[in-house]
Amino acid sequence: MATIQKRQRKDGAASYRAIVRVHGHPTIWKTFHRKLDAERWAQDVEADLHRGRWAPTTDSLRRTVAEAIDRYLDHTLPLSGIKDKSKATLRLQLRWWAEAIGKHRLAQLSAPLIVQWRDRLATDPKYGGPVSPATVNRYLAALSALLSIAVKEWRWLERSPMEGVGRMREPPGRVRCLTDEERARLLQACRASTNAGLYPLVVLALSTGARYGELAGLRWVDVDLKRGRAAFQETKNGDRRAVPIVGHALEVMQEWAKVRRIDCDLVIPDRVGREHTLRVAFYKAMEAAKLENFRFHDLRHTAASYLAMSGATVSELAEILGHKTLQMVKRYSHLTEQHTARIVERMNAGIFENQR
Length: 356
Hints:
The chain is mainly α. The protein folds into 2 domains: about 1-165, Tyrosine recombinase, N-terminal domain (DNA polymerase, domain 1), CATH 1.10.150.130; about 180-345, Orthogonal Bundle (hpI Integrase, Chain A). The protein is about 50% helix and about 10% strand. β5 (about 230) and β6 (about 240-245) form a beta hairpin. α4 (about 85-100) crosses α6 and α8 packs across α12 (about 300-310). The termini are far apart.
């Protein structure tokens, strides 16, 4: 049976504690700002308990969200194999959740509570907002990963309350590609750069679709110019990825290998002597090429567009670019559809040629 208790907070505002008592189960309670939310939560919990869908474990009644976060950060995350930069981001996100809901017992954690704090993060400056929908979703993903571990490995929860939490709608990903004229101007400016490594860097980016970090960390030991291949050992998703180097890109790399530095194993060192760093050199090349609203990552978009227009399927794009899911490459699907339409058009022209 559920009971709703009205309570007076120190600031004078009212709060409502929902208490659920069902025979054969421990007493469960949770506090809400609105009476309606307390009543709805109590009804849902009662229904789940009667149907056997939700049975809080001893750990879920005893452990707090903060304890789960501490255990994850201290023991699980260090052994996860995630990159240090991503680990730092996860720590920041989970510390935010610890401040927001850390005092709650795991058994009290519910989808409505998480949604409440999700919306605060998105809109309220008092709680770190406003932030973009994409950022909010990354915070939700961090909490979801933690709760999944709590369910599957620690057995601190029977199920994750994230199952009832929706992600925020994100705007379409930004796609800025070079026109033929812009590409010619940029390559010419890169050739004239004081940093001799800039032209090979940009040619590789355009021909492979690799990210800046992947190219900047590429080592000669992972390049096979005889077979025309390069292997990126450190990628964004953590998987090793090999890409072909062919045509003009292969010719450029063969020439570049002749003047490679013997004191550095990096294929394209960031700086040589007093030359500008690669990033500075790229910005100067963009200015010389008169490119607007452009960044280095857009070379990756440009390469993906070339691949799509050359007939690559969405799954092939994902494999070449190193995406684990197809969602990120669906932004180029209209280009692959245009190519497919031309193929079907040619096929139809051939089989129905005598029917006109």
